[in-house]
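Hi, here's the filled form for the chain we discussed.

Project: internal
Contact: R.S.
Residues: 332
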Amino acid sequence: MKLAVLGGGAWGGVLAALAGWRGHEVTLWESDPVAAAALERDRRNARSVRGFRLPDAIAVSGALAPGVGGREMIVLALPSHVVAATLQAAAAAIAPGTAVVCASKGLDPRTGATMADTIAAAVPQAQPVVMSGPTFAQEIWDGLPAALVAASRQPEGAQRLKAALGSERLRVYTSDDVAGVCVGGALKNVVAIAVGCCDGFALGASARAALITRGLAEMGRLTEKMGGQAITMAGLAGLGDLVLTSTGDLSRNRQVGLGLAAGESVAQILARLGHVAEGVGTARTARALAERLGVDMPITREVAAVLFDGKPARAALTDLLARDVGAERWSS
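And the returned structure, exactly as it came back:
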């Protein structure tokens, strides 16, 4: 198939390479002219994973409309806060029925909308699909086995993605719970920041497990409120991705939490990482969304307070521990 990947960073480059290896005709769009030139010339750029080289057959484009025109599938590997604007700029060139796949894990910062709803609003003629799950770009590039989930309200949409990228090494499961997969992918980043703080303060494996479990519970409550199924949080887009992002050292969001525990400022941490950590922006968006919908999300609330209100990380963890203990709730 003719396929475009939007976003020339680590994940976008790896997804483009995977699609190329599967025999698809691939164009990789990069918005930064300097990074696009590096990809074209060197077949990698400063944001590529270790050892990466873009296959020669993959075209690199710095122009958006030509990059998406005539494509049967468009894969978004962009920071979530630029997805809406990018799609609006590309909408006129996207043909009806095109599968627009979002590999970004976040919420729209202006509206709190999921990435699936953001696609539907910006490109109503497209077929939205979201992909999520426990995957590190570096490990996928290294050929290590992994699994993810593709969700779409039209079964053929998820199946198209499975056919495009699935292999023995990358198992692609399908789901019709689009809201659940979107919420799981976004909120696990926020919880991972909290877990990073917990580990940074050396509170122990028991505390880490408790925090992951209670984070999963509040993810389930928001999922239900947004029309999804809490049970989806027991799958790849929920528990799977949450465990990986909370405990894997390649996780940027975990690194944010570790940095906060070490006394670094948010600006210092992000400058050191050199990459987007989606959980930072998502924490503020999810806190506002939870307040608007009346969903109790104490972990998200405390992470946002640390990131944006100047609350010390240790004080936030102390307040979480001091909360009244009631019945264990999985859903709303």
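Let me know if anything looks off before we file it.
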